[in-house]
Amino acid sequence: MDPVERFLQEHFDLPPKNPSEEAQRRWRSAVGTIVKNRRRRFRMVPDLDRRQKDEETRRSIQEKIRVALYVQKAAIIFSDGASKKEYNLTEDIMNAGFSINPDELASMTSKHDMKAFKMHGGVDGISKKVRSTFDHGISTNDLDKRQMIYGENRYAEKPARSFWSFVWDALQDMTLIILMVCAVLSAVVGLASEGWPKGMYDGLGIILSILLVVMVTAISDYRQSLQFKELDNEKKKIFIHVTRDGSRQKISIYDLVVGDIVHLSIGDQVPADGLFIHGYSLLLDESSLSGESDPVYISEDKPFILAGTKVQDGSAKMLVTAVGMRTEWGRLMSTLSEGGEDETPLQVKLNGVATIIGKIGLVFATLTFVVLLVRFLIEKCLTVGLFKWYSTDALTIVNYFATAVTIIVVAVPEGLPLAVTLSLAFAMKQLMKDKALVRHLSACETMGSAGTICTDKTGTLTTNHMVVDKIWISEVSKSLSSNNSLDDLNSAISSTTLNMLLQGIFENTSAEVVKDKDGKQTVLGTPTERAILEFGLMLEGHDTEDRTCTKVKVEPFNSVKKKMAVLVSLPNGTHRWFSKGASEIILQMCDMMVDGNGNSVPLSEDQRKNILDTINSFACDALRTLCVAYKEVNDFDNDAESPTSGFTLICIFGIKDPVRPGVKDAVKACISAGIIVRMVTGDNINTAKAIAKECGILTDDGIAIEGPEFRNKSPEEMRDLIPKIQVMARSLPLDKHTLVTNLRGMFREVVAVTGDGTNDAPALHESDIGLAMGIAGTEVAKESADVIVLDDNFTTIINVARWGRAVYLNIQKFVQFQLTVNIVALVINFVSACITGSAPLTAVQLLWVNMIMDTLGALALATEPPNDDMMKRPPVGRGESFITKIMWRNIIGQSLYQLAVLGALMFGGERLLNIKGGDSKTVINTLIFNSFVFCQVFNEINSREMQKINVFHGMFSNWIFLGIIAVTVAFQVVIIEFLGTFASTVPLDSQLWLVSIGLGSISLIVGAILKCIPVESGGTSASPNGYAPLPSGPDNI
């Protein structure tokens, strides 16, 4: 490992996710004082001290909320005799038609005031006072009134920064401040010695250059901030189901008002304070609000629901009683500032590179100033003596100092870490268009290094548009794909059996039939539940028997138990359990089955074997299998769970969920990119294998394993097994977590994981990149994820990987380009100062070069879109060098060429080009400056490809790159031809322009020659940084 990489590993190595505060402080300390502009350099880096204060504030508020929630009984008993605050109904409230004060309503919920709750008539009485009904909800015509009286569902946020604040930040650059002082001194001394206006030119030129640098920097930073603001707004877009105007609607949480009837289900974050209307097994996680980890059971006896809590289990309808700043959650969020997002590993690494170069630059700048000053003093001593000083001498020293400071400006590459944010902002915006919302900056760059993707099956690899394709009932298996299939099924089974089946479908479902705004009936729920309920609705037309019964107890679907159950009270006074879930699990619970006449008959071993064969045959057809069963009971325990034996099997469903178009190609692209795709699903192993083979995931040498078998393996067995696992079926969320942990720990893989359920949160958090599903995913899963896949499509995940690789490679290209400019600018000025006693590149010229290589260079190279070749290279592994040997080859080769050219012009230019006359020195210096800039322009084109010879591939479709090259060249012409008085240049004739452009263009030939020099890779990839060896055909050149 080279010294630079060793230094970066020691001080600037940061994990991509959940970095420790110690690691964050370590690199900040290592940066030290070699920072030109701390405000700009660390703008995208969190303020750890502020974050610590915010955390203390959060804990303090949580403690107050905890006391309010858990010590309330004692407080109420104590305060019963005390006088209570009086709430009056104002004229505005009464005119709006409401009968309860907003503050009283909010206080009742937040303080869990049961006395006030009962005084107002419970949830029924309060709903009347806010003019809402449980079935109809509120009227949309009242929204403005409700927002005016009860407030909007928003909390106070810090206003966005203005453009001028970014200008101010850009002006905080210490070197620019010193240069401004030098410019003023230069102008004052110049006026005194040379008069107006000639004496102003040098100073004014520096000031104008500084203003140009500041404005370009501010515009770039401001546009970045707008992009991040736009993405931040996308992150906050959360939708919730409500009943309004008698129909079920999906609205933004920000449109929620007091009186809304909200439908809560597992994984939702409660968007406002409210009261429980009715529901089943509602369990809330209040840890984010109160700090208490124990979940809270909500019922009619404990009806208070607080904003910011999460639904851990069950479902419910809630009446909204307080929104926005009237909720404890709103007040908590408004007191906390945005502590800033964690810095990304690339940002930290490039801060390290900038620190190293900055220290070198500082040494060179100091040496340059000392050499220039010593030479000047020696010449002065030999000519007029050290005791005679003129104003021009002061001007010369000021100019020397300005040149030295400008060398620091060029040498300290502030743009390196900021180029990462620019590239990430660009990538994130493009990914948003491609249906991927990146929640954390680091995820975008880390995804480029992903070597494994652990993906769900349902909805990610498949379309999530499910239909019941086959059914087994009363030992009859029927395909439902034909038009007459329902009539055939109806004729094959008795009315008693049909009645039992329909009861099992309609009573034990989490889906529901609702009316939309147009009055049409729509089925809402998970795709599986929708498919079964839609099948039941179609079948219902064939049956007219009354199945009225009352739900007594509901156990929602649980990914650990892999089943759901409901207890119903029948019209005859008896009770019946219905259970539905994974076919093998439900079958184990059954010892009876329904025969053709609708009677319960014992389940023989032969029948059990036949049923298992049916399940496997359905699964081998890539169908998802579910069983429905029932059990009659005389009595039950309210606190006990549903029984696990003694059930009677009703039917087996085979549900079709086709593979998404394009998934097979996307998996193939992953394999060619060195990314292993592993399917982790809760489905039957045969279903999983059939889908995996269709997608190209399961190969002949791969293994498909079930979760129970996997979790019983020892660590040694897992070490041998995990590399071969391509499919894991019947898995629990814990199995996914174990797989991810071992892939990262044992094999040092960079792992991306998809998830949609609440129980997937630990695996999403543990992985390097957590990918939550935007459609099927719960809010809890999305909150734990780094990227939200808005269309739930596997192809979108591959797009994230492509852009991640593009970000990494773009930053490498930019670093290669910038380091070349750094080396050449430093060496040429220092050598010239030592030999000739003057610097060929003036302060104004160096500022322009700095802008080319910093802001404009970053815009040009850091915003290159991805290409297909990026997915033909293996990913960059953990711990690989960022500045590769290939990059060093290109940097050193181009630097030597540029130094040779500029050195030849500096020391022999007049003789070689036959330039004569009194201004020959100025002409040569102008030619050096012009050639230097054109070398950078062509090297910028060179840097588009670090390994391939054809650097023009895709260039003419990249308008940003072409625009920046055009602007750079155009402005260079203006500087040379028209701004000579400020930039210390003279107009060049056409021959010298051709010389400048010709010398610059030779960089392309030099680049092609350099790429033919073989370089050994120091990393773990098969080839350097994932690049293929030198091409053998014209398409790969």
From TrEMBL:
Record-listed E.C. numbers: 7.2.2.10
Keywords noted in UniProt: ATP-binding, Calcium, Calcium transport, Calmodulin-binding, Ion transport, Magnesium, Membrane, Metal-binding, Nucleotide-binding, Phosphoprotein, Translocase, Transmembrane, Transmembrane helix, Transport
Ranges where the Cation-transporting P-type ATPase N-terminal domain occurs: 117-191
Location relative to the cell: Membrane
KW Metal-binding (keyword) present: yes
SUPFAM superfamilies for this protein: Calcium ATPase, transduction domain A, Calcium ATPase, transmembrane domain M, HAD-like, Metal cation-transporting ATPase, ATP-binding domain N
GO cellular component, as recorded: plasma membrane
Membrane-spanning parts: 174-193, 199-219, 356-378, 398-427, 819-841, 847-865, 959-980, 992-1010
Bilayer topology: Multi-pass membrane protein
UniProt-recorded Gene Ontology molecular function terms: ATP binding; ATP hydrolysis activity; calmodulin binding; metal ion binding; P-type calcium transporter activity
Domain of life according to the entry: Eukaryota
Catalytic activity: Ca(2+)(in) + ATP + H2O = Ca(2+)(out) + ADP + phosphate + H(+)
Pfam families in the cross-refs: CaATP_NAI (PF12515), Cation_ATPase (PF13246), Cation_ATPase_C (PF00689), Cation_ATPase_N (PF00690), E1-E2_ATPase (PF00122)
Chief localisation class: membrane
Protein task: This magnesium-dependent enzyme catalyzes the hydrolysis of ATP coupled with the translocation of calcium from the cytosol out of the cell, into the endoplasmic reticulum, or into organelles. Catalyzes the hydrolysis of ATP coupled with the transport of calcium.
Family, similarity comment: Belongs to the cation transport ATPase (P-type) (TC 3.A.3) family. Type IIB subfamily.
Name of protein: Calcium-transporting ATPase
Originating organism: Eleusine coracana subsp. coracana
